[in-house]
Structures are given as C-alpha cells and as structure tokens.
Amino acid sequence: MKRSKIAALLANPEAIGTEVDVKGWVRTRRGNKYVQFVALNDGSSIKNLQIVFDMNKFTDEQLKPITTGASIHVTGRLVESMGKGQTCEIQADTLEVYGTADETYPMQKKGHTLEFLRENAHLRPRTNTFGAILRVRSALAFAVHKFFNEKGFYYLHTPLITSSDCEGAGAMFQVTTLPLNDLPRTEDGAVDYSQDFFGKPTALTVSGQLEGELGATAIGEIYTFGPTFRAENSNTQRHLSEFWMIEPEMAFYDINDNMDLAEEFVKYCIRYVLDHCRDDIEFLAEHYDKDLIERLEFVLHNDFVRLTYTEGVKILEESGHKFEFPVSWGVDLQSEHERYLVEKHFKKPVILTDYPKDIKAFYMKQNEDGRTVRAMDVLFPQIGEVIGGSEREADLDKLQRRIDELNIPMKDMWWYLDTRRFGTVPHSGFGLGFERLLLFVTGMTNIRDVIPFPRTPKNCEF
Ligand code: 4AD
Ligand code: MG
C-alpha cells in the first residue's frame, strides 16, 4: 500500500472507510488494557492523526516501544472519529516500529521554553511550534518566488563569495584558504593575498544588490533571494549573522514605484500565508500571540503611511516622549524611534523616505537639497525595519563624487561604475529581511526562532 500523508487524509472525506498506510513520529500514547490511543504526527500538518489499537489484536509487548518520539508505520482502516478534536482516526491492523525513543528523548510532551528548544535546535523541528514555523517559512519562501514570477521578474543568482566590500552594510566574514598560523607575507610584512585561493581578499556577501544592479540594468527586473552574512557583534532579538534576504532591483523604477512594489509584495506574502498556512498560524496565535491574525489582517487592509525622515524626526521631537537615545535631525533612528512612529503615533506600517545622506549607503540617489538621499525604510509594528531600499544614483559624476567622499577605493568599483558609464538608467530596489518578515507573520519575538539553524555571535551549532 502507498503511504498517505496525514494532511492529505484529514483533507479528504473520501478517504474515510478505506485502508490506509501512514508513517510518522509518536507524540503521545494513552489508554487502558482494552484500547490504546496514539497521536501520530508526520510533519505534514500541525494536526495529529489518532491511531486506535484494539488490544484484542495487539499485545502489550508490541505496543511497549510506542513512546513519545518513536517512529512507526501503521496500516488500518480510516474511520470517522467519535472523539472530540478530530474528524477521523485509524483502526490499526498492522504496526511496524522503525525506531524507539527512550525517556532521554529531549522533546517530551510539552511545556518546554523557547530557550530550551533553542539549545536543542537539532530536535526542535519535531515540536508543534517549530513544525508550524518551518512550514510557514517554506510557504513564505514559495510566495516570494510566486510573486516575482507572476510579475515577470527574473530570479538572479548573485554570488555568496565576493571580492567587493563596498556595500558598507556591515562587517564581513573573510573567506580564505591561507594557513592562519603561518600566513605568507609580502616584503613589507603585509599578508600576501596573491597566494590566497582567489589571489585577493574575499568575503561572504552582505548583500547581492550591487550584482543585482548589473542584472536589472540588462534584463530589466530581477530579484535575488539567498543567504547574506554580517559579522556585526549585535546580540539582539532581530539580528542574525546569517540571514536570508530578498532583493528586487528594477530598471526604470523611481522611488515611488519602489515603495508601491514593496507594499504590494509584503501584503502578497502575508495574504499567501493566511490563505495557505491557516492551521499553523492559528496554532501560533493561540499559543504565542493572541492578536496575531488581527494584526496581519490589519496590515493587509491599510495603506502604509509614507513620510520623510525629516517629518518623522519632527514628530519624534515633538512627542514629548523620553527616548533612551535622544533624537534629532541627522541621527540614525534606533528601533525605539521606529517603533514609536509605527506603534504609538501612526499605528500602521510606515515607509520613511529621504534620509540624511551621511547615514545611508553611497549608491543612493542624491536629492536636490544636497543633504538627503532617496532612501526608503519600511517599518513594521513589533519588528521595526523590515525593508531597506532606495532609488539608485544613476549619474556617473555624482556617484563618483560620493565614492570619493566616502574614501571607497574607486579601482574596486570599475565594474559597478560601468552600469552608469554605459546606458545608465533610473533604477531602484530594496532588500527585505526574510526572517524579519517571518517574525511578523508568526508572532514570534526572537529571530533565532524563525530560522532552522540560527547563527549569532558565539553560536554556530549543528
Ligand atoms: O537595510 P539593509 O542593510 O539593506 C541592504 O543590504 C541593501 N543592499 C538592500 C537593497 O537595497 N537591495 O538590509 C535590508 C534588510 C533590513 O531591512 C532587514 O530587514 C534585514 O535586511 N537585515 C537583517 N535581518 C536579520 N539580521 C540582520 N543582521 C540583518 N541586517 C539586515
Ligand atoms: Mg537598513
């Protein structure tokens, strides 16, 4: 008989009355000497399937290995269930035990803290919570591709190993095959990178954007979706050293087109998860965040507020609120400032634009005022910044002047500058932190809980 997934059985009323074959992990077993009930989960759904063992047909000895965490294979008839909380159950005919799990199995029934689960990240996918999160994560990744595919964007694979360190987004992880305890030196004592694998210093990418611009200024509209690496020592609930980023880059888009796309994209992703992961979202709402679904619906049905950094700072200054970090024009906004605007003042997602040029990257389009650039950050309740982007400086002279001012080595940028040297076009793009969006849609509060294997300072297990 062919194995059925539990989600498929639960969704198909016609399966009732047929012989079925299921495989999975035991969540619980209970019962008496006449009948035993096993809750089986195979990862296809937050819901377990109940297996009923008639103890006239099975021996105690046979059922003994069926403890929480054991893996089993059952065949039997799927029947309507009398019990509450389930529509159907299996009356077992055969039982095969693949693997036992004794009382040292760490994921025993319930009541584990998220902290404990983080320490056991190798087994936490077997819990209800992480099963739900991993399914939502997978669905959200699919929604990203679906959205851009439907819009005619091309998926561009930008490199993970790069020799350009010009993004300025964060510290980089160096990539080298040189022997660290016996480094080759040049005559003046510097490390001789000509002997390194690529013949020069290289690192893991902090963003695929600059290469993304090469794609957009050739085939029009592209997006990247891949891991990015930042060696910042920030131990917060919102920072990972390895995170996934979605970066669309579009020729002929100005900053307004860019904002429209960002808003449409985020709403599409949230709608997709609500439509396709309802059971998982309801589970997470029930256990972690009672207002989750309401908050997701609210974002779907409201326009994001759009205002300039200058207007935002004015609101913060006039708020009378005492911030830990004082706010004035020119400062980089802290998460407390962003959250004040979003949660207290507007009570809606906010897109903040036209930041001071000195706190933003070199490639952003310079405004006529000489002080600000056409940047945009999308700020969300609970999370703060989920998206950072901008219209790009398309003018070669202005871009070169900015690169000079910031002392970025021009010789390393020749390939990027060629996009402005030959057939330059207005263009824009942004980067969405995949895990930040996942925090929002799952209602989790710690970013380590929405990625299967988190990497943070001093933590790289499994
Ligand atoms: O604002 P960032 O640094 O922008 C860029 O990297 C641009 N090159 C994007 C672009 O225009 N193509 O990062 C973009 C987003 C942030 O808004 C945030 O959501 C997320 O990436 N992010 C992080 N997420 C988790 N951990 C970190 N350490 C993150 N740093 C940024
Ligand atoms: Mg940013």
Description:
With 462 residues, the protein is of the alpha+beta class. Helix content is 31%, strand content 24%. The chain contains 13 helices and 16 strands. The strands form three sheets. Strands 6-10-11-16-15-14-13-12 form an eight-stranded mixed sheet. α4 (128-150) crosses α6, α4 (128-150) crosses α7 and α6 crosses α8 (292-300). It starts with 5 loop residues before the first helix and ends in a 20-residue tail after the last helix. 4-amino-1,4-dioxobutan-2-aminium adenosine-5'-monophosphate is lined by residues 167, 169, 207, 209, 230, 239-240, 243, 245, 247, 385-389, 429-431, 433, 435-436.
Give me the count of strands.
16
Uncertain residue ranges = none
**Quaternary status of these chains?**
single chain
Largest sheet, spatial ordering of strands: 6-10-11-16-15-14-13-12
- Give the termini separation: 36 Å
The coarse silhouette is elongated
* Structural class based on helices, strands and sheet pairing: alpha+beta
Instruction: Classify the helix fraction into a percent range.
Output: 25-40%
- Ions, cofactors, ligands: which are bound? 4-amino-1,4-dioxobutan-2-aminium adenosine-5'-monophosphate, magnesium ion
Radius of gyration (CA) equals 27 Å
Q: Could you spell the SSE succession in H and E letters?
A: HEEEHEEHHEEEEHEEHHHEHHEEEHHEH
The major pleated sheet works out as:
8 strands, mixed
Summed over residues and divided by their number, the pLDDT gives a mean of 95
